[in-house]
Specification:
Length: 262
């Protein structure tokens, strides 16, 4: 499996700024599939499935915000001080290693894959991710990671900011009560003692922060296909998403064929 690393920004010098459109689509050898949506919608499960199905790498961009948030916790930094967080980012190596079921997350070469899922890191990541310059730093890394294509990248701003030229964009949504109930039934270890109501409240809080921040708030791209899984089973969601991807990729190759014949 291809090893994908983000090394403290040094490799990202050529990437466009977060506000600019990357002009990579024409040069990309393989497509980018962007999956966005609120917390707990099942994006990681869907991304892992599509990556396996189409032979792509899955990249969980949320894990990058989580890794930096963890380092801020370890260094006793305030989550509200953008300047300090940026300095910290400049001195940090975050690596994502795609696996069959999600990403291995390395923070300065240490495997923090489990730790970054704990509730304190989850809450910190949500606060850290509101800072515009920090987001730009992350976006540059993410564009570098996906530059060659052949990736399913999931997050909150992939189709709107990171890869607005993605070949396929899916916005996966579901009612907060349904997302909370699914999470509760999964029995996430760090949340084992938490009630279903508390999980729903926490999801709503993160939703509000994600949707209302000034820099790249969570929203569906104009050309995204919205998949609302509120009343769908997992199998139905996976099948519907596969169909969306297949249709878009086929349409893309037909369009490319007609361009190259012209
Ligand atoms: O997807 P996740 O729950 O692992 O994301 C953790 C946090 O990071 C979440 O609160 C929102 C933020 N995030 C973001 O702002 N932009 C992304 N592309 C991915 C995650």
């Amino acid at each position: 499996m291809r090893r994908t690393s983000v090394e403290n920004g040094t490799g990202a010098g050529a990437a466009a700024g977060a506000g600019e459109e990357p002009k990579a689509a024409a040069r990309r050898a393989r497509p980018v599939i962007a999956i966005d949506g609120p917390a707990g919608a099942g994006k990681s499960t869907l991304a892992a499935h599509l990556a396996r199905r189409f032979g792509f790498l899955n990249l969980e961009t949320g894990a990058m915000y989580r890794a930096l948030a963890l380092k801020a916790i370890e260094n006793d930094l305030s989550f509200d001080e953008e300047h300090e967080l940026l300095e910290l980012a400049g001195d940090t190596r975050i690596a994502l290693q795609p696996q069959m079921e999600g990403n291995l997350v390395l923070l300065d070469d240490v495997d923090v894959s489990r730790r970054v899922r704990d509730t304190d890191v989850t809450a910190a990541a949500s606060r850290v991710s509101v800072h515009p310059k920090l987001r730009q730093w992350m976006v540059e890394q993410q564009r570098t990671l996906g530059a060659k294509g052949g990736v399913v990248m999931e997050g909150r701003d992939i189709g709107t900011v990171v890869f607005p030229d993605a070949e396929v964009k899916i916005f996966l949504d579901a009612a907060p009560e349904v997302r909370g109930n699914r999470r509760y039934r999964q029995g996430v270890p760090a949340q084992a003692a938490v009630t279903e109501e508390a999980i729903i409240e926490e999801l709503k809080e993160r939703d509000a922060r994600d949707r209302n921040r000034t820099e790249s708030p969570l929203r569906a791209a104009e050309d995204a296909v919205i998949l609302d899984s509120t009343t769908m089973s997992l199998e139905q969601v996976l099948a519907a998403a596969e169909e969306i991807v297949r249709t878009h990729l086929e349409a893309g190759s037909r369009a490319q064929g007609s361009v190259s014949r012209a």
